[in-house]
Design brief:
- With 108 residues, this protein is an all-alpha fold.
- 61% of the residues lie in helices and 0% in strands.
- It is built from six helices and no strands.
- The longest helix has 21 residues.
- It is flat, with a radius of gyration of 25 Å.
- 0% of the residues are buried.
Length: 108
Amino acid sequence: MYEIVWEPIIWIISFVIITITVYIIRAIGRVDYRGGEEEKPFLSGMEAPKEKMHISASNVYWGFIDALKGYYNSMKKIHSGVINDYVSWFMLITAIIFISLFLYGVIK
C-alpha cells in the first residue's frame, strides 16, 4: 500500500487529472460573471475606496503578534537591519544544530 504513495508516475497522472478537472470546472462557470461587482474588494458589505483597502501584515496577524508580544519585543531589540548580523546568526545557529547532531550521533 505504501509503495503507491511514492510512485512518481501515479503522482504525475493524478496531477494531470486534477488539472483537467479544475480546468473543466472553471470553463463551466459563467463568463459574464467576471469583471463586475464581484471583483470589488469586500469590506463588511461597505463601499470603500481602493486606497483604504490596503491591509498591512500587522492588521492581519494582530492576534498572533499580541499573543507573542513578549517574544516580538525581545526580537525587536536584536533586530538591527544589517544583513551581516543575520548571516552571523544563521551561521551560529547552523553550527549549534550540527554540533548537537554530532553529539547525539544522528550524523556520523
